[in-house]
Amino acid sequence: MEDLVRIRDLTVRFHTYEGVVYAIDDLDLDIRQGETLGIVGETGSGKTMTALAILRLIPYPGRIESGSIVFFDKGLRSELELLKLSEDKMRSIRGCKISMVFQEPGSALNPVYTIGDQISEVYLLHQRQELGRQAKRRIDSLLGNGGTLAASIKRPFWRWQSRLYNKIAEGSNPLEPRILSHIPLFRRLLWRLKDEAGLLTVSMLKDVEIPDPDRVAGRYPHELSGGMKQRAVIAMALACSPELLIADEPTTSLDVTIQAQMLELFRRIKADRGASVLFITHNLGVAAEVCDRVAVMYAGRLCEVAGVEEIFLHPMHPYTKALLEAVPMPGKELQTIPGALADAFNPPPGCRFHPRCPSAMPTCQHERPKLKEVAKDHMVACYLY
Amino acid sequence: MDTLVDIRRLKKHFPILGGVLRRPVGAVKAVDGVSLAIKRGQWLGLVGESGCGKTTLAKTLIRLWKPTSGHIYFDVPDVVKAEIEMLESQDKNGSKLNSLLKENDLGTFSSSRVRSFHRRAQLVHQDPFTSLNPRMKIKNIVAEPLKIHHVLSGHAVETAVEELLDKVGLSSGQLERYPHQFSGGQRQRIAIARALATKPEFIAFDEPTSALDVSVQAQILNLLKDLKREFGLTYLYITHELLIAESVCDYIAVMYVGKVVEMGKPEEIFHTPRHPYSQSLIAATPVPDPTRRVGRIVLPGEVPSPANPPPGCHFNPRCSRASDECREFEPELKLISNDHYVACFYPL
Amino acid sequence: MSDWRFTARQLAKNPLSLTGVVIIAIFIIIAIFAPLIAPTPAGQLNSYMIPRDGYWAEPQPPSAAHILGTTQGQYDIFYGVVWGARSAFRVALVVMSITLLIGIVLGSLAGYFGGVLDEILMRITDIFLAFPWLILAMALVVVLGPGLKSVMIALIVVWWPSYARLIRGDILQVREEDYVEAARGLGASSGRVIIRHVLPNAIYPALIMASLDIGAVVLSAAALSFLGLGAPEGYADWGQMTQFAQNWIVGPLDNPLKYWYAVIIPGLFILFFVLGWNLLGDAFRDIFDPRLARR
A128 with A192: CB under 8 angstroms? Predict the structure, then answer.
């Protein structure tokens, strides 16, 4: 399988009052075409930061210090170095080619707009040409039929509108509609664009299995339950048919039965659309359910990457093993990992896990293990292998 | 084993106020007629999704809130409970019944009696990031219950605090620090130390590990196990994660929209669930084992609002086995096998 | 990080806050060392009365005897502004602390217990807030009889409702916090919960507002004095000194700025005092605002 995103030597640091936090330290990771890659880790492991780095949305005082993130744009058939793109170009990728679903559906939606308006917004922002094409087609069909008096009066107006929408459909940002959209009364001539976006929105909502999508489109976020809100957020993220969907703990705030519905939805999205999904979670059970490959992170570094069955059945890195042992399972004594998570300001040298590792060796204390392939498609960063 | 906590037909409704005059126009029936007995030394797991009333049940039981109706008995002899039941069914002798209730029913205790009751029963909150006063030092946080109940004074308090922190695995060098200087797991340990301070018999835990990482969660669960053994404690453990309930609890009650739908030993609940809701809850729980992906039941629909639950069995709109009977009548909790209760007309 | 270092760094980061600290420090020094800076003439019993040098009306320009000149009625301006700093601090601190106290007590009762008590207390504050404050204060001073004490009482009466309201709002928020519920779960009484858990977490916005308001209190007291409702004649008070200058703001036609010292000097003292507190209030906000994470 080909890669969709290739991350190399990515380093993200936070320069704070109390010192420098190594949020991500020299990360190498590939996301392949059409796969669901899970990133599993605990608080402070850098899993969310990895996602934000791909979108170049690292919050202040964080900074991407070095590395490269290459994105293979299927539509343009070209490689894009995301870290070198201009902010304008990056904006056209965010929410369109790469989109994100956040943990809290409540805060991802704006409370003062309806669900429909918010999803339409995405279409109006990123797919104006497509909307213009649709609108033109609709007017042309109006022009073609009807010989009534009303129709013949309106016909010149329709012709003019058809030309207008054609311009939108052809040019990337034509002058005439742009001027119109800034003049209060004339702005309404472009209403057909909004209408088309509304139609697309409803079909999108139907696609994420929201019952009665026409009605839900007119609702405000607070009128919907948590599960419905998360579905709406997913619909918004999918609006532009992204090539990569990043989901940051999308089911953490949901109930178990709703979570099961959502995991089912993610699996279907991937199968239907062939998009890659980067699924970030701390719940190993969820990762086992949806992912094709799983990457385990600890204190800003990658420990292990492998196929889902491989990693759960034959974990190699001591941290992965310990993490799996710590999940409560009936009929099994709970195993704990000794010690506490690595201090973000002052991480241990060498392998970051060595103070808690049962099989730590002298080398682990001062030399950082490199990620290497020990079995087919199974990468581990540990001196044991 | 005798019964330590006995809840009978407990209801807790929150009024919904509406209109200009703020009159009650309805009620959120958060807990709607729950009967539950917790034996001394038991670790009872209360399982359910958000909005099922499990937190309300715990907070009413610990008398942070006053129940709407029903009885809560804490360490009351069976004879007395039987007498109250008898007097209630006879519907006379009002003054004797009232004095008995005032003496024994936690639900009718005056606020000063409730305060002294908190020496014997404690609650540990869900989120250790909000349950500790950010402007108090750790030593004052842990010492507070001792001071409130005048258990100890002066220098003895300090040694007691050090001992408590040692019990939950924190070093005494951290006494002068503030909560924000600790990690989530450490804060939860502090909250547990605070709950242990007055040597209670009963502790209710409201999802104590849901805000914590997996590895920390395991540490806390093991700590709870050790403390229970050491102090002979009785636990009520609320969680939405069935794997935790199954692996640590002795007895499990499953709640759905204000009611207990099934109670039983963990082996039975998880291997032979009899209520369709328990069954689908177990099936929906993700297990870290990719080979067990298949055969999941995805339950349609969402949890109904406790302000406006569907008539009959509250689960009927999502249940594949629902009949007209389920839509009309509410099933009672019935004993179906040894220590296994289920509220369903057509148990599996 | 220790609180002190954090505070120092916040101050250093913002030069305006630092300016505020410096200005107020200078005023504190002036107030404390007033007897040394402007010694009371021998034989004068009340140090707060400004010594006067004759009785004629026209203010006199700065001279060797009166380094900042004299006002109408020949009161010494230098002595007046130096001892006036003490009056300003007294009015500001007394009014602000009593206002805060009333606000905290009533706001906590209304916010924590809610219900009927809340309704009654809040409707009373609404009634007070419905009056135009200056007119209410003037009426009160007239009823109580002019004097600094009346001014302070009047200012407290018009000032407390906004504090009661602010504190009530913050308490309503903090009351719902988990640690407050946890404290009740430990068996703590309402008084203990309010004093140890609710107030320490709810009071900072009110303290910040108080420090910003101190300037406004002094300004209002000066306004009342300017209207002739403040301190008795001859008392060291900046407001009153501006009142003395009322008739001398513009000089004779050939020299309109002839009596500048009578207006500008007391005016500048008031201005810097108010400015100092406002800047300091901003500094307090930077330091106490919980939204500024200490990372």
Answer: no
Task: Tell me the pTM.
Answer: 0.85
Q: What is the pLDDT of residue C226?
A: 86
H or E, element range at B204: strand B202-206
Those residues whose C-beta lies under 8 Å from the C-beta of residue B308, and which sit 6 or more positions away, are B26
Q: Give the tokens for residue C95.
A: 């009014």
Strands A62-73, A3-16: pairing kind: antiparallel
Kindly state the tokens that stand for A268. 């279907």
Set of chain A residues whose Cβ sits within 8 Å of the Cβ of B283: 260
**How far, in Å, are B66, B130, B133, C146 from residue B140 at the CA level?**
28, 16, 10, 50
Q: Does B117 touch chain C (CB under 8 A)?
A: yes
- CB contact (8 A) between residue B149 and residue C177: no
Half-sphere exposure of B209 (CA within 13 A, CB side): 25
Q: What DSSP letter does each residue of A280-313 carry, written as one string?
A: EES-HHHHHHH-SEEEEEETTEEEEEEEHHHHHH
Question: Could you tell me which of A9, A19, A20, A89 has the C-alpha nearest to residue A53?
Answer: A9
- Whats the size of chain A, residue-wise? 385
pLDDT per residue as tens, chain B (348 positions): 689 999 999 999 998 887 777 788 888 889 988 999 999 999 999 999 888 889 999 999 999 999 999 999 999 988 888 888 888 888 766 788 888 888 888 888 888 899 989 999 999 998 888 999 988 899 999 999 999 998 888 888 989 999 999 989 888 788 888 888 888 889 999 999 999 999 999 999 999 988 888 888 889 999 999 999 999 999 999 998 888 898 899 999 999 999 999 999 998 998 889 999 998 888 888 888 887 765 566 788 888 888 888 998 999 998 888 889 999 999 999 999 888 999 999 888
Q: Which two tokens stand for residue C92?
A: 């500001």
Residue B131, chain C, CB below 8 Å: the answer is: yes
Give me the helix-helix angle, B155-167 and B184-196, nearest 10°. 130
Q: In sequence order, what DSSP letters do the residues of B239-278 get, joined into one string?
A: ES-HHHHHHH-SEEEEEETTEEEEEE-HHHHHHS--SHHH
Find chains touching chain C: ≥3 CB pairs under 8 Å: A, B
Contact indicator for B205, B62 with CB cutoff of 8 Å: no
CB contacts < 8 A (A, B) = 124
- Whether C153 and C159 have beta carbons less than 8 Å apart is answered as no
Which chain B residues in 171-200 lie under 8 Å from chain A, judged by CB atoms? 183-186
Q: So what's the ipTM on this one? A: 0.86
Domains of chain A: 3-112+220-380 (3.40.50.300), 115-206 (no CATH)
Inter-helix orientation angle A191-207/A128-144, to 10°: 110
Q: For residue A32, give the 3-state DSSP assignment.
A: strand
Closest C-alpha among A252, A253, A251 to residue A263: A251
Domains of chain C: 1-32 (no CATH), 46-270 (1.10.3720.10)
Chain A: nearest CA to B113, how far in angstroms?
A: 37
Tell me the β-bridge partners of B127. none
Spatial distance between the Cα atoms of C202 and B134, rounded to a whole number of angstroms? 12
Q: How many CB atoms lie within 10 A of CB A238?
A: 21
Helix (H) or strand (E) run with residue B35 in it: strand B23-39
Q: What DSSP line would sit under C82-122, residue for residue?
A: HHHHHHHHHHHHHHHHHHHHHHHHHHHIIIII-HHHHHHHH
Question: Quick one: chain A helix, strand, coil %, rounded to 5?
Answer: 45, 20, 35
Backbone angles phi, psi at B205, to 5 degrees: -110, 125
Q: Smallest CA–CA separation between A227 and chain B, in Å?
A: 8
The string of DSSP letters for A121-133 reads HHHHHH-HHHHHH
